[in-house]
Amino acid sequence: MGGALLVAGTTSDAGKSVLTAGICRWLARQGVRVAPFKAQNMSLNSMVTADGAEIGRAQYTQALAAGVEPRAIMNPVLLKPGSDRRSQVVLLGRPVAEVDALEYGAHKERLRAVVADSLARLRAEYDVVVCEGAGSPAEINLRAGDIANMGLARAAGLPVVVVGDIDRGGVFAALYGTVGLLEPADQALVAGFVINKFRGAAELLAPGLEQLRALTGRPTLGVLPWQPGLHLDAEDSLSLDGPRPDAQPPYGKETLRVAVVRFPRISNFTDLDALACEPGVVVRYATGPGDLADADLVVLPGSRATVSDLAWLRERGLAAAIGERAAQGRPILGVCGGYQMLARHIDDEVESKTGGVDGLGLLPARVVFAADKTLGRPEGGAYGEPVRAYEIHHGIVETEGGEPFLDGCRAGAVYGTTWHGAMENDGFRRAFLADVAARAGRDFTPAPDVSFAALRERTLDVLGDLVAEHLDTEALWRLIEQGAPAGLPVVAPGGVPEVSADK
């Protein structure tokens, strides 16, 4: 079949990733062999495939939605920001360069060729490829070098659906403006819209949809209702700004409180999703010492800029507060970059190039950054429970004492590991939380039957249901099979749609 579709968005975090996952699940249910694809992803949430390649966490989850094995060609280009100006370039799962925004342009032709080849291979192997755009296709300052949005759509002849988040407000202006800012040849591929996160009276929305069609000549293919609790492997920390009603006080004595330090370059915070799925566990994000005051467990998560984020930790007074907690025997967990910060000393000539700096000194360990990145899917155990995880790091931690904890160590109530995803192992998660609760003096008992894998599957099924029930699936099929319809109007800057002359 070889059909394909590009899901673009008016902004980052508009719903592209979840809609792509939903379409993949909807198609897979019908026996369609479908694969996700994101040409270029800028994300600090990543995952390791079975063959040791690093890809965006969202694409990994979309592959699970499609029921296929995640592969590097599903996300051939991954950018991992280390500062406001520099990013690591991961190509087909392996780091190849550290660049700033201007230097990145020199790599574009090479990346464009890899993107085109990856998509062609997927289209040859699968019935349908559902592509996800990056950011917004209307970023006109970046259009000339675009390989992920309309540049990809033009090169591969992909029909485009644009999704907008109505919960942010201004969705009609965003959808109309997205089309209006595109050049005519790009507009010719934009076939319709999807409105995301709608809550309200449908009859009040309907006149706006009619006017949007009159102004652009394009239909709205569906309105997805607000669905709470769909925090599905987010791509960036924008998702942490949204409302999390489950994290609001008051709490009972049986509620276990987890405070996660929100580093400026926080990475792989999807590690905390499995903690949040436990009944009676509240996960909050902390940026100041006061946010840690009533926490039973403080988590230092992953970081793409360990030394820089460690300095931030000290500047904010969080380092001192964490040190006081450790002295009081109150539980602290460091994961990957957070584990490195808990060590006695860090020698970094690779990521920050600052050389030697003192860590927090809460674990008997030293860290040396290596030029080669460690990527893997390790297995082990703790508390008598099996653990399967993944690791992504340049920092090599050498323990100098303490008790073993996964691949890391523990000293008193301070735990450290480089393994991501350990909390997704249900037996280990329950045993760890029971240990934390006992050390914190909290009357909390983990639920005996919560399966994180089953919860993820149910979430993916919900996304598939939303697509099946609220989108014009016949129209989606036509786009996938036939491409964008001919004769779509050009939206002129003045707002008057004109029929394209080349149609």
Automatic annotation (TrEMBL):
Active site, renumbered: 336 (nucleophile), 420
InterPro entries (UniProt xref): Class_I_gatase-like, CobQ/CobB/MinD/ParA_Nub-bd_dom, CobQ_GATase1, CobQ_N, CobQ_synth, GATase_3, P-loop_NTPase
Record-linked CDD domains: CobQ_N, GATase1_CobQ
Pathways per UniProt: Cofactor biosynthesis; adenosylcobalamin biosynthesis
GO biological process: cobalamin biosynthetic process
CobQ/CobB/MinD/ParA nucleotide binding domain sequence ranges: 6-231
Presence of the UniProt keyword Transport in the record: no
Limits of the CobB/CobQ-like glutamine amidotransferase domain: 257-426
Keywords per UniProt: Cobalamin biosynthesis, Glutamine amidotransferase
GO MF annotation terms: ABC-type vitamin B12 transporter activity; catalytic activity
Family in the record: Belongs to the CobB/CobQ family. CobQ subfamily.
Record function comment: Catalyzes amidations at positions B, D, E, and G on adenosylcobyrinic A,C-diamide. NH(2) groups are provided by glutamine, and one molecule of ATP is hydrogenolyzed for each amidation.
PANTHER family according to UniProt: COBYRIC ACID SYNTHASE, DETHIOBIOTIN SYNTHETASE
Protein name: Cobyric acid synthase
Gene that this polypeptide is encoded by: cobQ_2
